[in-house]
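Tokens in:
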């Protein structure tokens, strides 16, 4: 079946993904992913780049080989107590990162690297990065994240006129961030300022997907208490299905170019800014797509059902279903199980303006 045909079937209710009816499963899965991500970060740690930890960095351009061992041998001659982080950047460039070296050690290492990689000494550049700059970057990133979350909370609460959707959206954002960092802990790639930029970027992407679904839920449940045939969970599940294909299309058109950048940066060019930002974007977008469908809506339905009015309405609808007194004329035999509703028939009828 084509994507367009599947989208029509999901929108009309001929096919339906039972998301809300399995809320506990999705929430438990999201919780496990967060716990595993935190465990990975705690055990393996975050491979912080030199921008955050400080140190000396030497770059060899036009190297005859990109093997790492010559760099380790060169450092062992100058400062045997230190361990180098050696990375191939592109086809003929080597980057060597160490702890802070003295001026004499830096010059000696430049000469040793030039000899090991058969290049002129002028092709080896040395820079020193202080840890204070990395601390400033970290502080500003955390400050920006907090400000972003506070503003998002206010905007969502005002836009949707309830706090449940705002809280569910924020919990989903936190889930996406933590799982993305878990991916970094798993693969062991360096976390650089470019990574932080990528993480902040996926916040907007995750929020966009979630807001699209929540906006459809608000549309479907405008006159919720004026009908007694479908629960809040039914109509929320309908919204997920009606926006599912849109989420898939948006994700594919975003993930394909980012995946190409990730391949280009990691395989062809080696470590660098492209790879650092692309991994954060790719992992974050993939996680955000899944969380906006399987986590955000179940969370907000669970929070909404803490309200007595919604619990009473749900109980009444289920009681009417068991008694066989439902009144949806177009589909009187529709199942009450979330995910099995019949599309437009599940939506409450709207009053026309001007009609008394």
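Residues out:
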């Amino acid at each position: 079946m084509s994507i367009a045909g599947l989208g029509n079937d999901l929108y009309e209710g001929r096919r339906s993904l039972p998301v809300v009816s399995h809320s506990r499963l999705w929430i438990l899965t999201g919780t496990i992913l967060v716990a595993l991500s935190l465990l990975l970060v705690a055990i393996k740690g975050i491979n912080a780049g030199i921008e955050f930890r400080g140190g000396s960095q030497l770059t060899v351009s036009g190297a005859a080989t990109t093997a790492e061992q010559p760099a380790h041998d060169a450092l062992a001659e100058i400062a045997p107590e230190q361990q180098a982080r050696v990375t191939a950047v592109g086809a003929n460039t080597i980057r060597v990162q160490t702890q802070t070296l003295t001026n004499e050690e830096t010059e000696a290492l430049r000469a040793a690297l030039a000899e090991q990689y058969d290049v002129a000494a002028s092709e080896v550049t040395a820079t020193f990065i202080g840890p204070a700059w990395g601390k400033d970057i970290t502080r500003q990133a955390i400050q920006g994240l907090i400000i972003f979350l506070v503003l998002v909370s206010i905007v969502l609460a005002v836009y949707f006129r309830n706090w449940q959707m705002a809280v569910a959206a924020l919990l989903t954002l936190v889930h996406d961030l933590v799982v993305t960092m878990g991916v970094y802990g798993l693969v062991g790639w360096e976390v650089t300022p470019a990574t932080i930029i990528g993480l902040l970027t996926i916040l907007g992407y995750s929020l966009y997907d979630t807001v699209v679904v929540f906006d459809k839920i608000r549309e479907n449940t405008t006159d919720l208490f004026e009908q007694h045939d479908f629960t809040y969970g039914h109509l929320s599940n309908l919204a997920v299905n009606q926006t599912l294909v849109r989420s898939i299309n948006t994700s594919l058109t975003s993930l394909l170019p980012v995946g190409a950048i990730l391949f280009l940066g990691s395989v062809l060019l080696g470590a660098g800014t492209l790879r650092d930002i692309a991994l954060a974007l790719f992992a974050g977008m993939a996680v955000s797509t899944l969380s906006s469908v399987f986590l955000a809506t179940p969370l907000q339905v669970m929070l909404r059902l803490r309200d007595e009015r919604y619990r009473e309405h749900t109980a009444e609808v289920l009681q009417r279903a068991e008694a066989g007194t439902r009144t949806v004329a177009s589909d009187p035999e529709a199942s009450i199980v979330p995910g099995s509703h019949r599309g437009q028939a599940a939506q409450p009828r709207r009053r026309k303006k001007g009609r008394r």
